[in-house]
Amino acid sequence: MNDSIIVIGGGIVGLSCALELRRRGADVTLLETGVCGGQASGAAAGMLAPYSEVPEAPDEFFALCRESLELYPAWQRSVREDSGLDFEYTECGSLYAAYHEADLPALESRLRWQRRHGSSGRILRGAELREAEPGLSGEVRAALWTPQESHVYAPDFVAALKEACLRSGVRIRERLGALELAAWEPRIEARSRGGEVFAAGQAVVCTGAWAGEWSARLGLRIPVQPIRGQICAYEWREERAPLRHMVFCSQGYLVQKANGTLVCGASEDVAGFDTSVTERGIARLMRWNKRVLPALGQAEPFHRWAGLRPATLDGRPLIGRLERAERVLFAAGHYRNGILLSPVTAKLIGDCAEGRPLPDWQRAFRPERFGAAAR
């Protein structure tokens, strides 16, 4: 690819797109208003779990998530090699817990369609379940085991992505303040708050929860709003039995990290761009998590934080080229799946930037699907 491209936004999606475009030969500049990974990416629990987090049906969104999961082993390996940095990538599998006999038919239904779409999972009960996860509460009657699912330690992974970008030749500009798309014909021009102008042949908008701010300028309805996700972490070292799998239930998740912490999330609410942590949000996590892992009843979280998740009206990301502004591509609105969807988003954006057609089913993520902005 012989073109110059500006990537606007330095979260995991922006960094992934920048790296992929540079690998394909583009001259890439990444622009970030603050610091790379400073918002949702750095605050994420890092789960790669489409089977557990998309429980309803195998629609286009699930297909996108599953494709990205299949890309992850090679993707994370290439990031590790290109950056020279190590980070946690754990293929531990997951358990989705059920507490009542009445929940089992739904669990069995999920297993049936998931097996048709790549899962080798099965339902564990009784002694087999206790052997798989000894610390699990006796209240858990059964769990859907999915060995394909995994997780990364998000802060280190984002740092490695940034370093891989830099080593490959991506120019990264941080702390630029507000950015304006000053023009998109006949060339892209982006302008920083300080008046610095960046020109290129194409632009990729990867601004997460702030993607809606481009609506008026582009004349496009971009219904992305921030959802605050509150998370807490416990010290979970040698004296406690480690959690062997990611554990999900209807209330949230628990995931053990290699650094000796146990992450519990997420309590969600609509609070605009407020990233403060509330007692109510963390208390909600602490109420249910001991029903999954009784040892948490005597534990107190040592760390509490929040991140903003960019949610669209239909829960699907905006990925692709604009018809009304052909030099502008979007990769935003990934909600709680930005970490998981980063490799497949980068691949699709790379294909779009090269002018390749996308498969028909991926039109479900067209950035213009919500229509024009109201005048």
Describe this structure in words.
The protein has 375 residues and is of the alpha+beta class. It folds into two domains: 4-55 and 154-223 and 314-365, FAD/NAD(P)-binding domain (3-Layer(bba) Sandwich), CATH 3.50.50.60; 90-149 and 225-312, D-Amino Acid Oxidase, subunit A, domain 2 (D-Amino Acid Oxidase, Chain A, domain 2, 2-Layer Sandwich). The chain is built from ten helices and 20 strands. The chain has helices at residues 12-23, 40-43, 50-53, 60-83, 104-115, 126-132, 154-168, 215-218, 279-292, 338-353, and strands at residues 4-8, 27-31, 47-48, 89-90, 94-98, 122-125, 142-146, 150-152, 171-173, 179-183, 188-192, 197-200, 202-205, 224-235, 246-249, 252-256, 261-269, 303-312, 318-321, 328-332. The protein has an eight-stranded mixed sheet with strand order 6-7-5-15-16-17-14-18, with helices on both faces. A six-stranded mixed sheet has the order 9-2-1-13-20-19, covered by helices on one side.
- Alpha carbon gyration radius: 21 Å
What CATH architecture of the largest domain do you see?
A: 3-Layer(bba) Sandwich
Number of extended strands:
20
CATH class of the largest domain: Alpha Beta
Q: Report the β-strand fraction as a percent range.
A: 25-35%
What is the overall pLDDT average? 93
| Structural domain tally | 2
Low-confidence runs: none
Alpha-carbon distance between the two ends: 37 Å
- Binned, the helix content reads 25-40%
Structural class: alpha+beta
What profile does the largest beta sheet have? 8 strands, mixed
